[in-house]
Automatic annotation (TrEMBL), chains A, B:
This is LacI family DNA-binding transcriptional regulator. Residues 11-65 form the HTH lacI-type domain. The keyword Repressor does not apply. InterPro entries: HTH_LacI, LacI/GalR-like_sensor, Lambda_DNA-bd_dom_sf, Peripla_BP_I. It holds the Pfam family Peripla_BP_3. It comes from the Bacteria. One of its GO terms (molecular function) is DNA binding. Coiled coil: none annotated. Keywords: DNA-binding, Transcription, Transcription regulation.
């Protein structure tokens, strides 16, 4: 496992100048983001510096011989959607609990695209801005995983399933088991028409939940309905409304976050469907919000704050050179509250 | 206005060594956080360096001649409470929208106490970790305002009222006007027993809302009820429950955030009080959540994402040496939805 304190870098500015066929001065200008070289030259120099695994030597090292005391997290998300669900703030809060104890800060950057996400990670490595990074919202064949598995890459931890972590360490939750539990619970209450209101399809954890839902429904001889959303309350409401208007309306819904479940509950009330008598709802993840609706929401409960702290501890491990590993966090468990009941007519 | 690009620092390590009566080497060890000096010496050197306004010169400057491309935010809050309300994530999302456009990151640190908050700000200045800082949750006589008003301090922006910003720039919202509007609106609907469910008393903005509520109620010849909470859903529910159990139960409630209003709505439903026929509720700030409850919540609406972006732009201004100023953001406006109606018996 590569660590930032692994002795001096062997690649020098002269090496880069030679490979790029430009002067040492030009390389220096390019690496320090100063004027004096063309954009084209700057891009070539930065690319070559990246390829060669260059990191600033003396200047950076004399400023902070060892650590930056900062972890980085770059998110390719629409900033407006970040605020809607409670997951991220809970997760950040958990990270901060651990970081604060060690005097670390979190460098958070939200970017508009996956390309910018990669560029930011490369820039952070080049400028030694952080000691390590967290990878969130991992997709299948995620290019960040490949980038960070290279020698001289920033120490990194995947927050997600081992199946998409490659050779990197990861912290994960067994979402498949949780989903199976939710389906078994609803089927046990006599529900046969169950809908999953899922999040964005390109995220690996969405795919894992989709698969688990579909397989468990099939095992029980039931026909699965998967509704696609972008995690927003508006989409959760729309999906619920459309499903309830269909010829075989579901009598139970499993939502991929808390805010969509709350929105689904409001749609049910507006349409005069009694919850839980006529319709059951399950939220995932559980949150303070789920405990303060009426009726209170049955939820798959996972201590997201503790999860964030666990992730921070594992990233400290990675930075300190611990053996890579796949670390399982606690599995979300079903907390039955007042939003689930036997299916209508099944009693 | 002090700026990080204001030419070279005039205080040298020798100056500090002379004042502290120790060797230059000892100062260097202390400032760079290396072993080789006693804790006592380290503390004295750091204190003297702070007093003299020392900032690292050559090493830091040669690494990044101008900017760190990072803004800092340190919060003295219980991390578990940070995730409950949507304000912070919306605000962060707004900041990030602006920062992302300029390639800036946000260094976020959550600390357990006000003392640690001050220490973190001092450390950031000493190590040039950030280009500027935001002050949130400003209190009356806030020691951070005094610290950051000193020469050589980090460029800073207060997110809060001009009355507590001292000589620093600030971005603020006219909460007093918004509160007056909410009270007038409820009084216009015939409500006479109105309760404010307020946040933490030591925050300046809580005090401003308290005062505006009390004054406006008095102007209308009504007796004000202010209930104190810590912004959590549990406290919002408790305050609502207690108020409804009192001999003159309020018929209208104005909550200091969205999650407490949602919790209050659930309490009303549980107790069989019909909203809005028997009880009116107003949330502040408005959020996606308020639009997806049933009935939907009347709210004081403020675009918190846009507010965050505005704050980021003003901090760029401060760092660039703009004239200090008190910048007013848009005033939260009342959005009547389905949770407010004429007071019972007033029609």
């Amino acid at each position: 496992m590569t660590s930032v304190s692994d002795g001096p870098s062997r690649v020098t500015i002269s090496d880069i100048a030679e490979r790029a066929g430009v002067s040492i001065g030009a390389v220096s200008f390019a690496l320090n983001g100063r004027k004096g070289v063309s954009d084209k030259t700057r891009e070539r120099v930065l690319r070559i510096a990246d390829e060669m695994g260059w990191a600033p030597a003396s200047a950076a090292r004399s400023l902070a011989e060892s650590r930056t005391e900062t972890f980085g997290m770059v998110l390719a998300r629409d900033p407006r959607n970040l605020g809607a669900e409670s997951f991220y703030m809970q997760f950040l809060a958990g990270l901060e609990t651990e970081l604060a104890q060690r005097g670390y800060g979190l460098l958070l950057q939200v970017v508009p695209s996956r390309e910018e996400e990669l560029a930011t990670l490369q820039k952070w490595r080049r400028t030694r801005r952080v000691d390590g990074v967290l990878l969130m919202d991992v997709t299948l064949d995620d290019p960040r995983v490949e980038l960070l598995a290279q020698p001289n890459a920033l120490p990194a931890l995947v927050v997600g399933d081992p199946s998409v972590a490659g050779t990197l360490s990861c912290v994960w939750t067994d979402d498949a088991s949780s989903m199976e539990e939710a389906v078994r619970y609803l089927a046990g209450l006599g529900h046969t028409a169950i809908a999953r209101v899922g999040g964005l399809a390109h995220f690996a954890h969405t795919r894992i939940r989709d698969d688990a839902f579909t397989k468990q429904m099939s095992r029980l001889g039931l026909s699965p309905t998967v509704l696609r959303t972008d995690y927003t309350a508006a989409e959760g409401a729309r999906a619920t409304r459309e499903a309830l208007a269909s010829s075989v309306a579901p009598t139970a819904f499993v939502y991929d976050n808390d805010i969509m479940a709350v929105a689904g509950l409001a749609v049910a009330m507006e349409l005069g469907r009694r919850v839980p008598d006529e319709m059951s709802l399950i939220a995932w993840d559980d949150s303070v919000l789920c405990e303060h609706t009426f009726p209170r929401l049955t939820a798959l409960s996972h201590d997201v704050v503790a999860f964030g702290s666990h992730v921070a501890r594992r990233l400290f491990g990675v930075v300190d050179g611990a053996e890579p590993g796949h670390f399982k966090d606690s599995t979300p468990v079903l907390i039955p509250r007042a939003s689930t009941a036997p299916a209508p007519g099944s009693a």
